[in-house]
Amino acid sequence: MARMLIHLTTGTENPTRAALALLVARTAMAEGHTVEVFLAGDGVDYLRPETRAAAGGIGTGSIAEHWDALVAGSAGLYGSGMSAKARGVVSEGDVELAPPDKLVELIDAADKVVVY
Fold first, then answer.
1. How far is 24 from 58, CA to CA, in rounded Å?
2. Angle formed by the axes of helices 63-72 and 15-30, to 10°?
3. Checking DSSP bridges between strand 56-57 and strand 61-62, what pairing results, if any?
4. Is the residue at 48 inside a domain?
């Protein structure tokens, strides 16, 4: 099985695209792949539980449901510390706020990288 990194930079302006990213991550994890998700830029808005709860994609499902499945499946969840700080977003216990070098490390270690 592959090690996959899903890099989500899309925010609330396009919840369908954001939900698709998390759906792909969830599906890959369910198929036995190692999955890590890194939210950066406007994507860090989905670190807020109320934003996840309110957002869903057209035909791509509920962001909150995908997120909960990723947490339950022990996917690696990361958020850009710089993006979060700039937007006043704080980390929850299941997400590591990380610097850019962590993203580079995850990219280097991944077999596949998908960006949304």
1. 15
2. 30
3. antiparallel
4. yes
Cα distances from 47 to residues 2, 14, 111, in angstroms, run: 25, 15, 25
Q: Please list the residues that pair with 39 across neighbouring strands.
A: 8, 79
Its domain, for residue 68, covers 9-115
Output the pLDDT for position 93.
Answer: 80
Centre a 10 Å sphere on the Cβ of residue 15 and count the other Cβ atoms it contains.
Answer: 21
Return the H-helix or E-strand segment holding 63.
Answer: helix 63-72
- Judge whether 18 lies within some domain: yes
What is the number of domains present in the chain?
A: 1
Within-domain flag for 110: yes
CATH number of residue 46's parent domain: 3.40.1260.10
Taking only the tens place, the pLDDT of each residue in 67-77 is 999 999 999 99
Interval 19-44: pLDDT, tens: 999 999 999 999 999 999 999 999 99
DSSP string, 73-116: TT-EEEEEHHHHHHHT----TT-EEE-HHHHHHHHHH-SEEEE-
